[in-house]
Amino acid sequence: MRNWEPLLCSFASSKWLDAHYDPVANLYTFSSCIALSDLHGDGENKLVVGDLGTGVCNMKLKVYRGTGLLSESTLLDLPTGLVSFLMDLHEPRTPAIAVASGPFIYVYKNLRPYFKFTLPSLEVNPLEQDVWSQAKEDMIDPVTLKEMLEGLRDKAEIPLSVRSLRFLMLEPQEMENFVLLHKEQPIRRQTVITCIGMLKKNMADEDAVSCLVIGTENGDVYILDPEAFTILYKMSLPSSPTLMDVTGQFDVEFRITVACRNGNIYILRRDSPKPKYCIELSSHPVGLVRMGKNVVVGCTHETLHGYTQKGKKLWTAYLPAPVTTMALMELPTRGFQAVLVGLANCEVHMYRDKNLISTIKTPDVVTSICFGRYGREDGTLIMTTKGGGLIVKILKRTAVFDDRDSATGPPIAQSIRLNVPKKTKLYVDQTLRERENAVAMHRAFQMDLSRLRLAAARAYVKALESSLTPMSASLTEPLKMNAVVQGLGPSFKLTLNIQNTAACRPVMNLAISFLYDENLYSMRTAFFKIPLLVPGLNYPIDTFVECLSDKGISDIIKVFVLREGKSAPLLTAHINMPVSEGLALN
User: Fold this and answer.
1) Residue 140 contacts residue 148 (beta carbons within 8 Å)
2) Is residue 292 located within the same domain as residue 386?
3) Count of CB atoms within 10 A of residue 540's CB?
């Protein structure tokens, strides 16, 4: 038995079968770069992964069959998205893989490079071209070139090209060589792809031809022809898109839901090149899933929100940890849909609407989730972890999810309708009386309420005057004090517990003074200086009181807390001394 199998058993769930776990698979990817596809048309789906590698090198397109690696191809740049789509009607019907990387889309057919699509170049600032032309003719030196480009960067409406931005980052000794190397080359301004999706062309069938939908860094959304890879439609967004969900058919009607970097979600439709609806979020989105006609969004503030297609908020669920990834779980044979949410506390939560119906424990933080048909098994859950591990689980055929399995909130009995009896004649008469005498009843209620408030105010004033609740009324120096008298007499120990109830401000320069009948009591120390009072801590101050009378009488000792140099006390308390059991010995 391998050493990771006990760990695998520890997070097993009764609804899932643990099919495979490889903690050293070296797969570093996100949900946007993972897909399940029948690449060879044999009815057996393979796992296609765009591996990020180290972020600088070892970027690869990997294909898994079962638990083993089938093939891998090197990628020239970091993949930002990956989709599987049918691009033609030719037999056999084998899908192609489109990998978005930088400004390019690499299309693979039968696991071989088939086509490379490049985003159209953007408009270059004419003033920037003039400045580089002057540098090409040696009319200006590199220092002047930098000053002119900095002025254009701050004022121009058209952003600078990558070449100019890279030049502005150089040290002065590196500028001349950079200009000599690049001044003969034409200036180009190229954007990059941030997200990619798939849109059915004219039929909703599962094996229908699909168009590619791509979002770019400059806020444009393109729909590409599946065969010629030309731009069929272009739409614009106010910000750069980061997450995308596509539904519908291009020739009929479609909706593209896009989460952007400005923290908003925009909904694009066929009849408008601009967003039709806008959803403003309280925090940035990190996951976007469409479930039926609703949109589920995971945000950075550990919340999950549900919205309609027109942007109306339906519900909010609060999560125990930040969201790392999200995916749709759909079982068409059972008519079941749910949202899988990967959390930073090594858990995957399954939500149906706002109800938590299942929780899956994982040995590491999940970074990507994919659910669907893998091999010949329909209900397969595939996850990759932060440490590069690969987890494969299979849903049991006997698994049943209840909307109230793990949902928090009121009990089910609260939603059961009560058997309310019919209205009686007494109830009807009472209702008529309340309607006819509404003004008089309201006045009586207000009178009783005023009397209650007056009684409470009088009790409060009486408590302040008798110092039953020794609390400071000052907002700048909130103090609290209580006294404890110990002993049977004639000697008593008097302990004052003083506390600063402020949130963060200390109190200093305070003193305590006692006022008492000198014929009845004597005190060793009748005046104290209080040390600095730190908020929240209790400071005990002790002194001793001697009773001088043998008549079995007692009196009140008054305690005053004052600020040094001030005559008005901040706090006053009355201490009822007990009757002494003896006479002090002089």
Assistant:
1) yes
2) yes
3) 9
